[in-house]
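User: Can you predict the 3D structure for this chain?
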Amino acid sequence: MKKLLISPSKMALGEQESQIYQNILKQASELSLNLMAVKVESHPEDFLGWCYELLSASKDRINYDLLETSQLPVLKKLHDQLISAISFLQVKTLRVAPWPVVSMFVEQHKELIALEEQLRLTNYISSIRQQSLKEMIPEDLLTFSGKHTSALDPSTYNFDVEWFASTKSAKGFHQMLADLPGAFDDALSHIPLEGDVEQNNYQQFVVGYLSAFNATDEKPTLAPATRLLAMRRPDVFTPISNSRLDALCGALGITKLNNRDFERYWQDIVQSIHAMSWFKMASGSNELETQLVGIKALLPCFFYYADKSTADSSNYIKLLSKPKRSTSTTGKTQRRGKESAEILVDRALAADDIPEHIRTKRDSIISEVQKGRGVNETISLMRTIFG
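Assistant: Here is the predicted structure, written as structure tokens:
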């Protein structure tokens, strides 16, 4: 372990990497006796590999029974620093990587990053993108804006809507979006659904987005705005989140943005990513690459740290293990609006494998779905009863 801890001092680290190493070493020193008891399996010669090895040693192989209670926060901070460092180092490779390397990385890590599930989300967004926010049913609005609730029936929404920068903590934003979706539509209307997006388009969006908050005490912040932009044009805008902003800004070599840096977001994030070789080279030589080209501004999200628990942490996966009837915090069945129920049922009944005699039960299915029953669960029950 001692050899592992000091090995980065012999690596040719840049200024950022050296500072990260010193910060990690500071936390590790407070756990030195515990870490020395851990068997080291390899001694990577690169800093990224070193971060992965130390994270594995301190997370998966350390003896937690020997840790003092006061050491647990220190260990947590060490893990957070290593995870942030891995995200920084992996995103940083985008500055020099060609398109084949980027697409290969995504392909090789598809299980860890739950790629299939994330692509199901982007495909679903593509199917509703031309609707205005005002026209969307509440479930679709949550999907577009990135906030999970138990109202999202996993048989219809078979993905975690919080991939690509969750906005669940932006309570003021979601209240405004629910109350005044038309104001956000006005802002997004300045971003064309196809073709080039110019700085002027973005600036007009910002004016509209900020104006939506004029009559309230809520403060407009940057992260939720980037989620809306990224879902409207995933080939242009990269979403940001507070938890990963350090890694992203560090990787791009820029000063960390604050939550009101709307101008710098365009210049330092959007323009920087668009200038990268892989972004300009992106082309589809197979089915996966073709899908990735259409969402190429989202690709940096795939380079953040992920491990074997990432896919299982999906809100979609968690919902699958819960009772089929979603309930509120009071324990009562959570009802759906009639419009939402009708749209969700009609989408399901449009499937080719639904027999006509089940389609004639539309009103009965809608009634059950309004009560909180899952769409697929209800249709399955009808098929069991009526054949």
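The first helix runs from residue 2 to 6. Residues 2-94 form one domain.
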